[in-house]
Amino acid sequence: TRRSSDLYISVGSFLLGTLLLSTLLISLLTRQVTSPLNKLMEHMKSIDTKHHLHNKINVKGQKEIVVLSEAFNEMIEEIRELVERLVAEQKAKRRSEFLALQTQINPHFLYNTLDSIVWLSEQGKNAEVQKMVVALSRFFRISISRGKNVIPIEKELEHAKNYLTIQQIRYFGKFSYTFDVDERTFDYTIVKLILQPLIENAINHGISYDEEGHITIRCHLEQSHIKLEVENDGYGLSEKQIKHITHIMTEPSEQSFGLRNVYQRLKLYYGEQADIIVSGKMDEYTRFTIIIPKQEVYQ
Fold first, then answer.
1. Nearest CA to 292 among 202, 228, 209, 242?
2. Is 1 exposed, middle or buried (0-12, 13-18, 19+ CB in 10 A)?
3. N or C: which end of the chain has fewer CB within 10 A?
4. What digits encode the pLDDT tens for the residues 40-60?
5. Angle at 209 between CA 174 and CA 166, to 5 degrees
6. Cα 214 to chain center, whole Å?
7. To 5 degrees, how large is the angle CA 127–CA 129–CA 130?
């Protein structure tokens, strides 16, 4: 009947209007998240290519994104101040070299992470977006550490956990990880940003694309020193490979820059009391063991 037909038309119009309104709202909400992130990404690219260390980014949006932009500004400010200080002061060569190595950043990691956040947001995976942004914000804050080069071991482990959280989301859960930590080590300090390059190496070279991998981070007290380990299962290493990695890590080389960076910073700060030992077994595991002397946290 005509009455029924009018009713169908009314219901159909209502549903269509609701669908259009929902689509519009989703588009606006997505834009609210992605717009400030895209702005931050573009700013990061300009820093990477043009070295605009005096330019700050002002992003409005969700609290986590604002915190992330502020942390990024603080990091750039730290780098700018370091560059000016190194130019003005040519003394203390070993200290200058140490600081230069210590404050290196990887713009590709930052850009790829923000790119992943944008993609997750567009897919409506808001829980993953929030988790990733919070982890990245905390990652930056510990990286800065108010200009300190030595931080409590607890903070270094937290930094490693934030990095693993980010990478686990980026790699769609392709690997899992565990921490085996003696909390007594929290009374001691370590040169910051030591674990992250080793974990990055474990992800890039130790995780198989065919099956899920696992990464274990250990931190324990020994008699006169502290031992930290980054271990991954998977391909493992032969004796020849162990000797090759040890050589390029301890000798000047264009290869394995991240590993050599860690080794060099440990030696610059601790001297012969620190070391990195590479070990592994084919098709079972690869392990990097860091040995540092005990240095207590001063209250």
1. 228
2. exposed
3. C
4. 677 666 665 445 556 676 666
5. 30
6. 18
7. 65
Check: CB of residue 212 under 8 Å from CB of residue 264: no
Q: Which residues of 102-121 are buried (b: 16+ CB within 10 A; e: fewer)?
A: bbebeeebbeebbebbbebb
> What CA–CA distance (Å, rounded) separates 105 from 82?
13
Q: How is residue 173 annotated by DSSP?
A: T
Q: Which two tokens stand for residue 29?
A: 């909400």
The pTM for the full model equals 0.69
pLDDT of 84 reads: 74
* Tokens (6 digits) for 249: 């890590």
Beta strands (DSSP E) in the chain are 150-152, 175-181, 189-191, 213-221, 225-233, 275-281, 285-293
Q: Supply the DSSP symbol for 71.
A: H
Number of helical (H) and strand (E) elements in the chain, helices listed first: 9, 7
